[in-house]
Design goal:
With 764 residues, the chain is of the alpha+beta class. It contains 16 helices and 39 strands. The strands form seven sheets. Strands 6, 7, 8, 9, 11, 12, 14, 15, 19 and 20 form a ten-stranded antiparallel sheet that branches. Strands 29-28-27-26-23-22-21-31-30 form a nine-stranded parallel sheet. A hairpin with a 4-residue loop joins strand 8 and strand 9. The chain binds (2R,3S,4R,5S)-2-(hydroxymethyl)piperidine-3,4,5-triol.
């Protein structure tokens, strides 16, 4: 791994043998991007990759007779107003109203390792040898402001991370109207843009579009990364698939409003930009003040979308997540939300927890409704003390009783919110975000606390940390159930208003930092009406996220498939819930509900007391199965998407152990078909010449489908499909899938789960 500066050509080459990222200092002193992609051999100069020609109408950025025009230069961090008419990465406003800036090279530093950018979350290294960092200092003389562009290349990953920092030294104040994290340019537009778009209960659906001239962007203006758009985009070559071809992934380590944009000019140059949403951002800097942007993680893959995702998965699991839970399999939990909603007593809770223990679960989570006057969602948020009418022995008493049952105890909180009907609001009406004199929009009857103010974060910290200290809490589900409207801080000056949205999220990170530092053993799961804040920023604090409020197994296939584009399986909260499903009223087979939930953290979201004996036995088997395979799924394995639920009736994915000796594959069909075509499942990631035993249990099916048993007779088909085959056959010829098996599994929304174990020599 090396970052080289070629003195003569004034070029930088970041490479680790997998990728190259090359830049030069242009004739006008600004930074130009020359190449990002598969590693190429280093040489003294790549200047020939700089393209420059005189063109009519272009603005020239160097003295006569030069022809350098920023309109046609691929820049590293473009600014507004000096001849480049595309969207800039930065706009600096001076006191006189000028919005022009030109940052030129001053110096650079190359050092081993990677610096933290706390309080912002970012990827990190454990040993300096894992990465090398380049910091390029640029200067704008008129405003007397330094801009430092940081680049880190990881030794073991095809990854470059970037962020920018501003240091203002001039006497005049300046305003950063726009300060994105990174800008990267490509010399052609032969790409498709992949994005993860959705809404509540259908988060992160995969969308593809061919790049067109002009701007194509996704964004959030909501104060949270949002379920509508995820802070991620990829550019893939049109011929790239899940398994092969070139893909570039860009992921922003940030949980607030963002912009991710691709602009193609009419000369077919493609500019990708990402960072804090400029629309709600305006950051004043006085002399001596600085500002740093969040981090963008850029991945190159020559192995298709799966190659990109596997890099994100490994990096985020091991070098973004942190804390005691990073390398641990996750407890199998039961959450009472869909079992009781607000309607519970201690007795009811203990009955549910007791049955969960009997089934083999390890953690019971008490969801919303345990505090203040919270008997519905109109009241109580903000009053973080237990409701003794529901829980006479408090959270402490309940947590002790749950622990006596042999389970760990977890608790739900929603610390950023307040209901107007609460003691907290009555005492501090000015702590709510909103513009005095204007209507305050409500959402789920609640309002957002102004976390841009330290006193608000302090007060919430005091209340909740007391409750946590007092009880026996092993897990916290940190929820957030509405977006920000009327963004205005009642505690702020006019200049503070442009900082409010970013400071809000810094306040959230601050509270997370305090709680995770004080209670390092607690497993945090972030949540935002399901997956409205499923982003890398959150994962740096909470190593798992509730993926979606949609708990239907069939819908989860799509949601988890899309989420896996960036996020590792261990980060996806995934539960089995009751039928008819509470969001869709669908009756997805229990077997499928579990088969899909296995590919995540796994748990239950229902009252197991209400299951039949047969179903309860099935649940016990499921929990035992997950205990056996969770290390593979959550920590060890590489995940491969095989067939997209967005492109057809069927979907498939698999996870393969590092040593390729064990794998699990899921095949799912949405609607059943009669007298239909043959089905094949081609696996991947196995050893070509190893022999494997492939098993697919049909147990759940027979119990689920007595009707069909009458047709076929219970002995008509085996209870388990077993196949022995070499890896190459499984990958290239594939497994024949029997439609009878799918019928027996319930037909619509049926799934087949295959365990694949290498047969070691000497074994029968
Ligand atoms: C939204 C979450 O996503 C649900 O799981 C549940 O915790 C509710 N909030 C509680 O209000």
């Amino acid at each position: 791994m090396a970052i080289t500066f070629h003195e003569q050509s004034r070029e930088f080459h970041l490479t680790n043998g997998k990728i190259s990222y090359i830049m030069e200092i242009m004739a006008n002193g600004q930074m130009e991007h020359l190449y990002f992609g598969r590693a190429i051999t280093d040489r003294e100069s790549f200047h020939h990759l700089h393209e420059e020609e005189p063109r009519s109408l272009m603005a020239v950025n160097v003295p006569e007779p030069g022809t350098l025009s920023l309109e046609f230069a691929r820049q590293e961090y473009p600014s507004y107003g000096t001849g480049d008419y595309r969207s800039p990465a930065v706009t600096v406003q001076q006191e006189n109203g000028s919005r022009i800036s030109a940052f030129t090279y001053v110096s650079h530093e190359i050092f081993p390792g990677k610096k933290s950018i706390a309080p912002l979350p970012s990827t990190y290294v454990e040993q300096d040898e894992e990465a090398e960092t380049l910091e390029i200092t640029l200067h704008d003389p008129l405003t007397d402001t330094d801009l430092v562009l940081s680049y880190t290349i990881y030794r073991d990953y095809p990854v470059v991370t970037r962020h920018a920092r501003f240091f203002h030294m001039g006497k005049e104040r300046i305003i950063l109207d726009r300060a994105l994290s990174a800008s990267v340019e490509f010399s052609d537009m032969n790409f498709e843009m992949v994005q993860l778009s959705g809404a509540w209960s259908r988060e992160r659906y995969v969308k593809n579009r061919k790049l067109e001239m002009g701007i194509q962007a996704i964004q959030s203006l909501r104060g949270a990364s949002s379920s509508e758009q995820n802070p991620f985009l990829a550019l893939k070559r049109p011929e790239a698939t899940e398994q092969q071809g070139e893909v570039y992934g860009f992921s922003l380590v940030y949980s607030g409003s963002f912009l991710a944009q691709v602009e193609v000019n009419t000369h077919e140059m493609t500019r990708v930009m990402m960072g804090i949403q400029p629309e709600t951002f305006s950051w004043e800097l006085q002399a001596g003040e600085s500002f740093q942007t969040p981090e963008v993680v850029m991945v190159y893959s020559g192995r298709g979308l799966n190659g990109m995702s596997q890099t994100f998965h490994r990096l985020y699991r091991t070098r973004l997540m942190r804390g005691e839970w990073r390398d641990k399999v996750r407890p199998i939990l039961l959450n009472n939300w869909e079992a009781t909603y607000f309607d519970f007593t201690e007795e009811k809770i203990l009955a549910i927890a007791g049955k969960a223990k009997e089934a083999g679960a390890e953690l019971f989570v008490l969801d919303d409704g345990w505090f203040g006057a919270r008997n519905d969602d109109y009241r109580g948020l903000g009053d973080w003390y237990v409701n003794l009418e529901k829980l006479p022995d408090g959270i402490r008493g309940l947590s002790e009783k749950v622990e006596k049952l042999g389970l760990k105890f977890g608790l739900w909180v929603e610390l950023e919110m307040v209901n107007k009907d609460s003691d907290l609001y009555r005492a501090h009406p000015d702590w709510v975000i909103g513009v005095p004199g204007r209507f305050e929009s409500h959402s789920r009857h609640q309002h957002v606390l102004d976390y841009s103010r330290k006193e608000v974060v302090d007060a919430i910290y005091e209340m909740i940390s007391r409750e946590i200290r007092d009880a026996r809490i092993s897990y916290i589900k940190w929820d957030m159930n509405r977006y920000i409207t009327e963004p205005f801080s009642r505690g702020g000056s006019p200049a503070d208003q442009g900082k409010m949205m970013h400071r809000y999220i810094l306040g959230v990170y601050d509270l997370y930092t305090r709680l995770t530092t004080e209670f390092p053993h607690i497993l945090f799961e972030s949540c935002a009406s399901g997956g409205a804040r499923f982003d890398p920023g959150m994962l740096a604090f909470a190593p798992q996220t509730w993926t979606s409020d949609d708990t239907d197994g069939a819908e989860r296939v799509k949601i988890q498939y899309g989420t896996s584009m960036v996020y590792p399986l261990v980060s996806m909260g995934s539960h089995v819930s009751a039928v008819p499903n509470h969001q869709l009223y669908r009756k997805t087979p229990l077997d499928t509900r579990a088969n899909v939930a296995y590919f995540g953290t796994f748990g239950y979201e229902l009252d197991l007391n209400l299951l039949s004996d047969e179903e309860f036995e099935q649940v016990k088997d499921q929990i035992a199965f997950m205990k056996k395979y969770r290390n593979l799924i959550q920590l060890d394995g590489d995940f491969y998407r095989l067939q997209s639920p967005f492109e057809g009736n069927d979907a498939a994915w698999m996870v393969v152990s590092q040593d390729k000796s064990t794998a699990l594959a899921l095949f799912f069909q949405r609607l059943n078909k009669v007298n239909a075509s043959w089905l094949r499942l081609r696996l991947t990631g196995l050893k070509e010449h190893a022999r494997y035993r492939v098993c697919c249990s049909l147990d759940g099916a027979q119990k689920d489908n007595a009707q069909l048993d009458r047709v076929y007779g219970t002995c008509g088909l085996p209870r388990q499909r077993v196949l022995e085959a070499y890896g190459d056959e499984l990958m290239y010829a594939g497994i024949v899938i029997s439609r009878d098996d799918l019928n027996r599994k319930g037909g619509d929304f049926a799934s087949l789960l295959y365990t694949i174990e290498e047969i070691k020599s000497g074994e029968a």
